[in-house]
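Lecture 7 notes: from sequence to structure.
We start with the chain below.
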Amino acid sequence: MIFSREYIGYLARRTVKHLIDAKMITTSDLKVTEERVNTAVLDELSLEDRINEEVRVILEAYSDEMRKSGAQYAEMFKKVKTELAKKYKAVL
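Predicted structure tokens for the same chain:
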């Protein structure tokens, strides 16, 4: 993940504060709301890590064919990652 968990927690707290200040949301339990936002942000940011791992598994299965055809790992990684991002409707 590109951000530390502490920073994500900070972002979640600031986001909730901003939304409350802008009167976009109301909450009776600030800590629960912050925790839910924190969890949502963590899930979203860890999606790219899960996609990357799935790409590695797929490319490992095709490593012999890639070597025979002369395909570049980095290029194939990017193509497969793009397809998986579409599949999961992720914005990376």
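Points to note: Residues 5-87 form one domain. The helical segments are 5-21, 30-61, 63-69, 73-87.
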